[in-house]
């Protein structure tokens, strides 16, 4: 079971590293990594019979991270018209 979560985590990392042309794909891979970490934490806490309060804190931070990424994506599309990283200059 833990091996499945590790495969999910490394698959998300490989997508994050290899598909870096679009911001939307990068954000989706980050959410996939966060989901795999959340599932690992659920499995680990259930194995140890630990309190699930930390999972709620983790979910709050992951939702804030997702909302921040989505707002950056919307502002980038409004400014530049697309989500390509190569279409604008960062030193501008």
UniProtKB/TrEMBL annotation:
Pfam family, one: Oxidored_q2
Major location (coarse): membrane
GO cellular component, one term: membrane
Region forming the signal peptide: none
Subcellular location: Membrane
Keyword field contains Mitochondrion: yes
Entries under InterPro entries matching the protein: NUOK/Mnh_C1-like
UniProt entry tagged with the keyword Mitochondrion: yes
Membrane topology note: Multi-pass membrane protein
Reactions mediated catalytically: a ubiquinone + NADH + 5 H(+)(in) = a ubiquinol + NAD(+) + 4 H(+)(out)
GO molecular function: NADH dehydrogenase (ubiquinone) activity
Keywords, ordered alphabetically: Membrane, Mitochondrion, NAD, Translocase, Transmembrane, Transmembrane helix
Superkingdom, taxonomy of origin: Eukaryota
Positions of transmembrane segments: 27-46, 53-77
Family: Belongs to the complex I subunit 4L family.
Designated name of the protein: NADH-ubiquinone oxidoreductase chain 4L
Organism (species): Colias crocea
């Amino acid at each position: 079971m833990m091996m499945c979560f590790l495969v999910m985590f490394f698959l998300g990392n490989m997508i994050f590293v290899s598909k870096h042309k679009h911001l939307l794909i990068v954000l989706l891979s980050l959410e996939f990594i966060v989901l795999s970490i959340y599932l690992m934490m659920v499995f680990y806490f259930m194995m140890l019979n630990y309190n699930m309060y930390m999972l709620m804190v983790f979910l709050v931070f992951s939702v804030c991270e997702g909302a921040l990424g989505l707002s950056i994506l919307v502002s980038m599309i409004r400014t530049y018209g697309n989500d390509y990283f190569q279409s604008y200059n960062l030193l501008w």
